[in-house]
């Protein structure tokens, strides 16, 4: 018997709600407070062409790290929504034939609930039935939308922690010429952010580091170009990195963020010197297309491969939302 069924048998109301796909992934949107960019390549932001696919120099060995999150409300104790969550992360290394092999992997299945707000009987059943519970503040239980935002933030934090731990584990074992490319912020880990062969690739743009003419140049960057490199100090939990924007596909006819990535690298002059070469390599990694992912235009294919690997290994009972149409009695 699952812990959810035990909870329902004890009197909880069964619920079937899985959030929209973006929330279910555990959004990695870059929304932390950040200082304005400090230019480290030139006096202002410029567009620089990068090597085309034929001229891109791809490192002989690369590992790719991505994560996956899925959660849903499965039962209610009055208005208290109890959540079933699963997060996972993996590092997959590409061999000489171009095949990705898993090197490191971690996952965590857990419940999310405001234990102090639950009725004593159902809380006892939950604590006795599931070994891993993330308690959250129940103060927002009466505001379901804000409560679910808190749940999403909790799941996202757990996922980020797994990814950070795997990144630190991976860089400790990288070969002399091997690189690590991770899906998300390099700057969450000081150890990873200072490594000479680690890159963070961010495909959401909730935080703006630029303004004025620099922002306009970044958002209208032509395909196959990168911006000048700038320093990002980030919020309270991030270390300094060097960063630049990179356009994978033309935005004209689509939207300003179409095909736009932000890359993070260690804060070192070598990152500036290598920015164009590294960008040409990343552009080459866009093929084959990362479909059917909705954000395929900003998702490097090897990172998509890691995501698909994790999805295939995830528990299947939360893979799709149950239908919400009324059932005839």
Question: Would you write up a description of this structure?
Answer:
The chain is of the alpha+beta class and 329 residues long. It has one domain (3-316). It is built from 8 helices and 13 strands. The protein has helices spanning 3-9, 21-24, 120-129, 144-171, 190-193, 212-219, 269-284, 301-313, and strands at residues 13-17, 38-39, 47-49, 61-77, 80-94, 100-113, 133-135, 178-183, 198-202, 225-227, 230-232, 241-247, 260-265. Strands 1, 2, 4, 5, 6, 7, 8, 9, 11, 12 and 13 form an 11-stranded mixed sheet that branches. Strand 4 (61-77) and strand 5 form a beta hairpin. Helix 1 (3-9) runs antiparallel to helix 3. The model is unreliable at 23-27 (pLDDT under 50).
Quick structural overview:
The chain is α+β, with helices and mostly antiparallel strands and about 325 residues long. It has eight helices and 13 strands. The chain has helices spanning about 5-10, 20-25, 120-130, 145-170, 190-195, 210-220, 270-285, 300-315, and strands at about 15, 40, 45-50, 60-75, 80-95, 100-115, 135, 180-185, 200, 225, 230, 240-245, 260-265.
């Amino acid at each position: 018997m699952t812990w959810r069924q035990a909870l329902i048998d004890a009197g909880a109301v069964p619920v079937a709600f899985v959030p929209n796909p973006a929330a279910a992934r555990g959004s990695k949107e870059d929304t932390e407070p950040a200082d304005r960019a400090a230019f480290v390549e030139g006096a202002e932001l410029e567009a620089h062409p990068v090597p085309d696919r034929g001229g891109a120099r791809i490192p002989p060995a690369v590992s790719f790290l991505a994560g996956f999150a899925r959660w849903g409300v499965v039962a209610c104790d009055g208005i208290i929504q109890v959540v079933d969550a699963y997060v996972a992360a993996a590092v997959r290394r590409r061999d000489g034939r171009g095949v990705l092999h898993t090197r490191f992997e971690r996952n965590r299945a857990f419940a999310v609930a405001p234990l102090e707000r639950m009725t004593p009987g159902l809380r006892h059943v939950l604590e006795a039935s599931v070994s891993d519970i993330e308690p959250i503040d129940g103060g927002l239980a009466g505001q379901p939308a804000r409560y679910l935002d808190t749940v999403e933030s909790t799941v996202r934090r757990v996922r980020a922690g797994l990814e950070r731990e795997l990144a630190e584990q991976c860089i400790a074992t990288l070969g002399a010429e091997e690189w690590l490319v991770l899906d998300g912020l390099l700057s969450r880990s000081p150890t990873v952010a200072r490594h000479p062969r680690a890159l963070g690739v961010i495909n959401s743009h909730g935080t703006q580091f630029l303004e004025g003419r620099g922002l306009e140049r970044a958002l209208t960057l032509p395909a196959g170009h990168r911006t000048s490199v700038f320093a990002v100090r980030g919020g309270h939990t991030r270390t300094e990195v060097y960063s630049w924007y990179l356009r994978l596909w033309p935005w004209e006819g689509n939207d300003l963020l179409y095909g736009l990535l932000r890359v993070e690298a260690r804060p070192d002059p070598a990152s500036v010197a290598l920015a164009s070469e590294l960008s040409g390599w990343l552009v080459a990694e866009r093929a084959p297309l990362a479909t059917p992912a909705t954000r395929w235009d900003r998702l490097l294919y090897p990172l998509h491969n890691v995501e698909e690997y994790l999805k295939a290994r995830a528990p299947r009972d939360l893979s799709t939302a149950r239908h919400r149409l009324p059932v005839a009695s």
